[in-house]
Fold:
Amino acid sequence: MTRLEVILKRGYFPKELPPAFYTNRFAKYACSKGGRAVLTAYKPADNFTECVKYLLALPGGHRRELRIPHPASYTDIAILIAENLKRIISIAGKSSFAVSKPHFTPKGRRAFRPDISPSDLATERAARRAGATHLLKADVSQFYPSLYTHAVGWAIDPKLREKAHWKNWKLLGKRLDQYLMNMDGKLSQGIPIGTDVSYLLAECVLSRVDSSLPIAKERGYRWFDDYEIAFETRDEAESCMKFLGRELARFRLRVNPIKSRIISLPSPADEEWQQLLVQTGGKSHIDSRGMVKHFDSAFRLREQYPDSPVLLYALGVLFGISCPNPKVGRIAQSCMSQALLSEPGAAQKAFALLSYWRTNGFPVDAKLVTQTVNRLILRHEAGGVSSDVSWALSFCIDQNVTLDSKSAKVLSDAEDDCIALQALHMWSIGLLPKGFSKVQIAKLIKNADLDREHWLICYESLRQHFLTEARSMVAANPLFSDLLRKDVTFYRTGLPGYASVIHHGGAPDWLLRRWIEQIKIGPNLSGERETVAGIPKAIEDDLLLLQINPLGGDDPLENFLSLLDAEPEDFRDVTYPE
Structure:
């Protein structure tokens, strides 16, 4: 793949979206001669587009607004970055102590990946505190939403601070600044959260800040917008806090006074609650009492750490169980339903775990799942958060779960593009038999514009034959009419039942590593594979069917995502036990 195709295929849509939302076909289209010509010639109304919004639920009732850029605007900036990738990567990598500095990964799960994985942060903390007595912990306040697009230009070309160069289009920084504004309503404050382009350019800004700080590499680290720096005295830490504030201010950023502080060392490098949950749930076999103990611990710890992803972690460690027995599974499902209804942001992990167990032969309690999803949709009606509902609908579509009329009525009024599209999909396959009406979604589409914040539902509702309200606007639009003719889609209606398991944020990386080790070892003396690692046979069979080698490449974990690159017709039907 070319650089551009990698950025459009692996770095366009936020990784937090369900796997049905994808950009593979669009990436190929944009890199074709004809597609590139249409995209280059395309001129949106008033020379700007808007992003689709997707609200990500977070523990503690917090939320983060992710954005899905318009395909024309994102392609514009992706082309510019692909053509100047070496220079931009160099700037983003100038920091001597950032562990989130981006690396371009053509065969990766994303177009760009950080130096280390989140699971390695505890070891970084422990190693870099050596000989120190005080620790500065600092957070950049509202980093992405407050990041000035002009600040990106300054980071790329510092001379843009000078008035004489403000309109110098020869400067890469000026073009990136303008393209960022064009991508999201001509706004200069804030860049879209969720795309790899935003990650790369944000790192360029903070890398410039880091380079100005008098900090030795071995004394601290920065992980995205979080700083942790060790010092021998409190005075040194306070001095650095002031210095950091001044340097951030040069880019119109500021330190978050609530999350930033200086603490005395020693201090634990890892979260205590994580260790406790591993002890109670991190086993390949667990009995009923053990499952009760695990969730009791998780629920107590959640009360102590309300803003931490306690329940997500508690669910994650249970991937060590390939397929619980019915008694254990009954308790687990009961507790999972409570977690889903109480903890914002738990839906993806919970439904991925259920899908994993079901793929391995566990009989999921369909009645309980249906009741839980119905309640989840009703609870989130007032909150307006996208992600938990979107993941719940994704599970319903994958596992053929029918919802009741109250949920259908709520979904009829969806103004979120992703949820509205999934609801239309469910209606089309008979999973919303009562109470669902297309009237409000159709009205939303009629009043929308293909260059603005509802471009996704407008195009895909027509592309998927769910609604026809967008027919005339798509026909009149040179880009979207060509996308339709070329059969380009951003939403796939056919996926294997394990898609959520191998998707970003589904099964933990340590489980995929176990699968790789199992494949390396091969069959045992009896001719069968060991089942402790729990690689589902459906996944193993499809790796063979699609001729994917999970052991190849720089990072074997990335190869599992190749299963989702295939088109639906490439998969065989997977039969699950009832």
Summary: The CA atoms of residues 496 and 571 lie 7 Å apart. The longest strand covers residues 52-57. The chain has a mean pLDDT of 91.
